[in-house]
UniProtKB/TrEMBL annotation:
Record flagged with keyword Hydrolase: yes
Organism: Octadecabacter arcticus 238
Catalytic activity: Release of an N-terminal amino acid, Xaa-|-Yaa- from a peptide, amide or arylamide. Xaa is preferably Ala, but may be most amino acids including Pro (slow action). When a terminal hydrophobic residue is followed by a prolyl residue, the two may be released as an intact Xaa-Pro dipeptide
Name of the molecule in the record: Aminopeptidase N
Keyword Metal-binding set for record: yes
InterPro entries tied to this protein: Aminopeptidase_N-like_N, Aminopeptidase_N-like_N_sf, PepN_Ig-like_sf, Peptidase_M1, Peptidase_M1_dom, Peptidase_M1_pepN, Peptidase_M1_pepN_C, Peptidase_M1_pepN_C_sf
Domain Aminopeptidase N-like N-terminal as annotated: residue spans: 95-172
C-alpha cells in the first residue's frame, strides 16, 4: 500500500535504551532485545513493532510473558500506561538471506544493511527514523572479529560488547562478525582526541588494497573539521568491506559497511576513476556522521535532507582535492544524462516525494544528485558566508534531531532573513524546468529575456514558477569579458534583465558553472558555440559550448546525413592544442555525448531516435575527428606520459585521461597498434584497461581479452570490469548473445549484485545493443530480472529503470518493451519493490 507524507504521525512511545544480544548461527541466529519504553503522552498510539521474516520465540513486558498479535509486517501488544520494559527473543536466518537486507552473510562474514527498513528483519522494533535510542549490543559467536556501533566496552572469548552513546534510529544499526583483519591507523581530532581507525577485510589479497581508502578517510576527517567545523565523536571508526552489497556503502554509526568495489583499491587493480569514486564515497559516508547521523531524518520523505546535503559536501570535497571545474563538469554530465532522463520519464518524482510504496525505490539520482543541486543553488543565492552561518545554526539547533526540510530551510531564513517559500518549490515540484532565452541590444543596453516552463510529470499537471539562479557573464565580440559572472535571480515565469553601457552587442555566457539544474533553450549558431568554446572564461560553459556543438553535429549527421561542421573540428583541435588547459579538462572536451544522451536529444527535438544510427554517427564522428587531429596526437601522447610510480592524484590521473582519449582516436587510425602496445606495457589498471577497451572498441583485442581474464581470474573486482567491458564493447548485434554467454561462465553469480550489474547493467547501458530491433536484449534482461527478483528485490527494482525510456522509441520497440514490463508485472510472487517500479513505468500508479 501507499505511504503518504501528509499522514506523518509521531510514534506513541519513546525508547530510552536498547539492549541487544546476538547469538550468531548461520541459519538460526537468536536475537534477544530488552528495551526501556515510555509512552509519548502527546501522541498516544498503539504499541506496534515492525517485524518481517523474524520468528518470535517469546516476549515479555516487565518480566511477565505476553502474547502479541503477530502479522506479516509486525506485532502489536497491549502495553501498560506508564514506562515498561519490553523483552523478546527472535530467530532469523542470515545464511539464506539473499535479499542482502537485515542480517546476512557475505563470503562467510556476518554483516547488516538496515537502511531504510532492514532492521525489522533483525528483530521486532519501531523501525522508523524518528525513533532514536542508545544501543548496547552484545555479540556471541566463535569468530575472531565481532563489531557493532559506537565504542567497544568489553570482550572475551567468543563475545564482545559495544555501546553507542549517541541516540540513533535503527537504520544506522550495524553488526559485523567474521574472520577479518584490520588495516589500522589513527587520527587526532581538532580538539586533540585520538580516534582509532580500521578498515576490515578478509585475510588475503584484499589486505593490500586498504591503504588508499585509509588515506581518504583521514583526508575526509580533516576536511570536515576545516570546512564545516565538524569533529568526529567516538573513540573508534571502523569500515568493513563486503563483496555482496546492494548499494555503494552505508554510514552506520562508527561502523561503515562498504561494497568492496567502493573501498578497496590498488594501482594494479583499480582505475583512476575507481580511485576518484572510492575517495568520494569514503568521504560521503564519513560526512554522514554529521549530516545523517547526528542530525537524521524525521521520516523517509525527508531522505534528501541527509543525502542531498551529503552529496553536496562530497562534491565540494572532491573539487578541493583536484579541480572544481572538472568535478563540476563531471557532475553536470551525470545529472543531465541520468537525472534529466528520470525527470522526463514515468519515474519522475520530486526531490522530496509525497508518497511511496517501497522507500528503497526512492534512493534515486533525483533525491541524491538533484537534491545536491538544490543545496548548491541555495549557497549561490545566499553567498558563501551566509551558507556557512546557516550550516552552523543547523548543526547547533538540530543536533540530535530527526529533522525535516522545513527545519533545513528555516535555518537559512533565520540567518539571512530571506523568504524561501518559493525556493521550497524545488523540493515539491518534479520535472526539469526549461528556460527559453532571447536577447536584444539597443542604445548600449543589452537585455536578456527569460521564460521558464516545467512540463507535467506523473501526478503533477501544472507547475508554478521556481527561483532560478542564472549565473551570467558577457563577452565582447573580440573575446574579452566585459561583464564578469553575476547571478541573476529569476523568480517569475517571464523576466528580463538589462546590462547598460555596452559599446556593442555582447556574446552572453549563460548558466555559468551550471548554476541551476535546468535546460536552457536558445537559438545559437555553431559559430557562437565555437566562439564560446575558444573564449569563455567559465570552464563549465567552455566545455558546454563544445558539447552543444557536438550534439548539433551528431543530430545533423543522423537526421540530414551532413558532414561535421568545421566549427566543431577546428574548436576541438584548438582545445587539444592548448597546453595551458588542464589535461583532464581537455579529455572531457574530447569525449562525445553518450548514445543515450543523443537519443534523449533527438527525442526532445521531436525525432524518434534510432539507437543504431546514433551508434554509427558517434563512431563516424570519432573517426573524422581522429583524421582531423591526426598530426598532433603523437605529440600529446608523448606529453601525457606520466613518469615515476603510479599515483592516483588528480594531476596524474588527468594526464592519463587525456592520453587515453587520444589513444581512443589513434586506435581508429593505426588499427589498434598503439593500444596493443599500451596494453602490453601497462603497469597499472588505468592504462591496461584503456588499452583493452580501445582494442575491443574497434572489434579487436580477442587475445588481450583472454589474457586479461587469465591474469585476473582470482580478483573479483577486476573480473567485474572484464564482464562489464566484454558486454559494453560487444558489437550492437552481439550484445545480447554476449551477455547470455557470460551468464554461463563459471564465474557468473547472480547472487552477487556487482557481478549481476557488471553483465546486465552493461547490457542496459549499451544503447545500440539493448535496443536491438529484434527485442532480444529486452527479453533477456526481463527474464533475468524476473529470476533475480525472487532472491534480491532491491537490486532487481533498481535495474528495471533500463526500461524507463520506453516511450521514447518507435512503436515496434515500444511494444516489445511494454511486453517485457507487462510480463514482469504478471510474474507470480513479484516483490513490492519491482511491482512498484514496473507499475509506475507502465503508468498504472
Ligand atoms: N545511505 C546510504 C548512502 O547514501 C545508502 C543506503 C541505501 N540503501 C538502500 N537500501 N536503499 O550512503
Ligand atoms: Zn548517503
Amino acid at each position: 500500500q501507499t505511504i503518504y507524507l501528509k499522514d506523518y504521525r509521531p510514534f506513541g512511545y519513546y525508547l530510552d535504551d536498547v539492549h541487544l544480544t546476538f547469538r550468531l548461527a548461520a541459519s538460526a541466529t537468536r536475537v534477544v532485545s530488552r528495551i526501556s519504553v515510555r509512552p509519548n503522552v502527546d501522541f498516544p498510539g498503539e504499541f506496534f513493532l515492525h517485524g518481517q521474516d523474524v520468528k518470535l520465540i517469546w516476549a515479555k513486558i516487565d518480566g511477565a510473558d505476553v502474547t502479541p498479535v503477530v502479522s506479516a509486517d509486525g506485532l502489536t501488544c497491549d502495553a501498560p500506561d506508564g514506562p515498561f520494559v519490553w523483552e523478546a527473543e527472535v530467530e532469523i536466518s542470515p545464511a539464506t538471506n539473499t535479499a542482502l537486507e537485515g542480517l546476512y552473510m557475505s563470503n562467510g562474514v556476518y554483516c547488516t544493511q538496515c537502511e531504510a527498513e532492514g532492521f525489522r528483519k533483525i528483530t521486532f522494533y519501531p523501525d522508523r527514523p524518528d525513533v532514536m535510542s542508545v544501543f548496547c549490543v552484545r555479540i556471541e559467536g566463535e569468530l575472531p572479529v565481532l563489531l557493532s556501533n559506537g565504542n567497544p566496552t568489553s570482550h572475551g572469548d567468543g563475545w564482545a560488547e559495544w555501546l553507542d552513546p549517541w541516540p540513533k534510529p535503527a537504520y544506522l544499526f550495524a553488526l559485523v562478525a567474521g574472520d577479518l583483519v584490520a588495516h589500522s591507523d589513527g587520527f587526532t581530532t581538532m580538539s586533540g582526541k585520538d580516534v582509532a581507525l580500521n578498515i576490515y577485510v578478509r585475510p588475503g589479497p584484499d589486505e593490500a588494497k586498504c591503504a588508499f581508502g585509509m588515506g581518504a578517510l583521514k583526508r575526509s576527517m580533516k576536511w570536515d573539521e576545516d570546512v564545516y567545523g565538524r569533529e568526529y565523536d567516538l573513540d573508534i571508526f571502523n569500515i568493513v568491506a563486503v563483496d555482496d552489497f546492494n548499494m555503494g556503502a552505508m554510514e552506520n554509526k562508527g561502523l561503515n559497511i562498504f561494497n568492496s568495489s567502493c573501498v578497496l583499491a590498488s594501482p594494479e587493480t583499480s582505475t583512476d576513476s575507481n580511485f576518484e569514486r572510492i575517495e568520494a564515497i569514503i568521504a560521503h559516508e564519513y560526512f554522514h556522521n554529521w549530516t545523517g547521523n547526528r542530525i537524521t531524518c524525521r521520516d523517509w520523505f525527508q531522505l534528501c535532507l541527509k543525502e542531498g546535503l551529503t552529496v553536496f559536501r562530497d562534491q565540494q570535497y572532491t573539487g578541493d582535492q583536484g579541480s572544481h571545474a572538472v568535478k563540476r563538469i563531471e557532475d553536470a554530465i551525470t545529472l543531465r544524462s541520468r537525472q534529466f532522463r528520470e525527470d522526463n520519464g514515468p519515474l519522475a518524482h520530486p526531490v522530496r516525494p509525497e508518497s511511496f510504496i517501497e522507500i528503497n525505490n526512492f534512493y534515486t539520482i533525483t533525491v541524491y544528485e538533484k537534491g545536491a543541486e538544490l543545496i548548491g543553488m541555495l549557497k549561490r543565492l545566499v553567498g558563501d558566508d551566509a551558507y556557512r552561518k546557516a550550516l552552523d545554526l543547523y548543526f547547533t539547533r538540530h543536533d540530535g534531531d530527526a529533522a525535516t526540510i522545513e527545519d533545513w530551510l528555516q535555518v537559512f531564513e533565520d540567518t539571512t532573513g530571506r523568504d524561501l517559500t518559493q525556493f521550497k518549490r524545488w523540493y515539491s515540484q518534479a520535472g526539469t524546468p526549461r528556460v527559453t532565452v532571447t536577447d536584444d541590444f539597443k542604445d548600449g543596453v543589452y537585455a536578456l529575456h527569460f521564460e521558464q516552463q516545467t512540463p507535467p510529470t506523473p501526478g503533477q499537471d501544472s507547475k508554478s514558477a521556481q527561483v532560478i539562479p542564472i549565473a551570467v557573464g558577457l563577452l565582447s565580440q573580440d573575446g574579452t569579458e566585459v561583464q564578469p559572472t553575476t547571478v541573476l535571480e529569476m523568480t517569475a515565469t517571464t523576466q528580463s534583465f538589462a546590462f547598460n553601457g555596452l559599446a556593442e552587442k555582447p556574446v552572453p555566457s549563460l548558466l555559468r558553472d551550471f548554476s541551476a539544474p535546468v535546460i536552457l533553450q536558445r537559438d545559437q549558431t555553431n559559430v557562437e558555440r565555437a566562439f564560446l568554446m575558444t573564449h569563455d572564461t567559465d570552464p563549465f560553459n567552455k566545455w558546454d559550448a563544445g558539447d552543444a556543438l557536438a550534439k548539433d553535429v551528431l543530430t545533423k549527421s543522423i537526421t540530414e546525413n551532413t558532414a561535421p561542421d568545421a566549427a566543431y573540428l577546428d574548436g576541438i583541435t584548438a582545445i587539444l592544442r592548448n597546453d595551458a588547459l588542464d589535461p583532464a579538462f581537455r579529455a572531457l572536451c574530447l569525449s562525445l555525448p553518450s548514445e543515450d544522451d543523443m537519443a534523449k536529444a533527438l527525442h526532445d527535438a521531436g525525432t524518434v531516435p534510432d539507437p543504431l544510427a546514433i551508434h554509427h554517427a558517434i563512431e563516424a564522428l570519432k573517426l573524422t575527428t581522429a583524421q582531423h587531429v591526426q598530426d598532433i596526437l603523437p605529440r600529446i601522447q608523448a606529453d601525457m606520459i606520466v613518469d615515476g610510480p603510479y599515483s592516483p592524484d588528480a594531476k596524474n590521473a588527468g594526464k592519463r585521461s587525456l592520453a587515453n582519449s587520444v589513444l581512443g582516436l589513434l586506435s581508429r587510425l593505426d588499427d589498434g597498434a598503439a593500444a596493443a602496445k599500451q596494453y602490453a606495457d601497462a603497469d597499472n589498471m588505468t592504462m591496461q584497461l584503456a588499452g583493452l577497451a580501445a582494442l575491443l572498441r574497434i572489434s579487436k583485442g580477442e587475445d588481450q581479452s583472454a589474457a586479461f581474464r587469465d591474469q585476473w581470474r582470482a580478483d573479483r573486482l577486476v573480473m567485474d570490469k572484464w564482464f562489464g567491458l566484454t558486454v559494453s564493447l560487444a558489437a550492437p548485434d552481439l550484445a545480447a548473445d554476449t551477455a547470455l554467454r557470460l551468464t554461463q561462465e563459471p564465474d557468473f553469480d547472480m547472487k552477487n549484485p556487482n557481478r549481476f550489474r557488471a553483465v546486465f547493467g552493461a547490457l542496459a547501458g549499451h544503447s545500440a545493443g539493448f535496443h536491438a530491433p529484434s527485442g532480444v536484449s529486452y527479453r533477456l534482461l526481463g527474464d533475468w530480472l524476473a529470476k533475480l527478483d525472487a532472491i534480491n528485490p532491491q537490486t532487481t527494482a533498481r535495474m528495471t529503470t533500463a526500461f524507463e525510456t520506453w516511450r521514447r522509441y518507435d512503436v515496434g520497440r515500444q511494444d516489445q518493451m511494454r511486453d517485457v514490463l507487462e510480463t514482469l508485472a504478471k510474474t507470480a510472487g513479484l516483490s513490492r519493490d519491482t511491482g512498484e517500479m514496473v507499475g509506475r513505468m507502465l503508468g498504472n500508479h
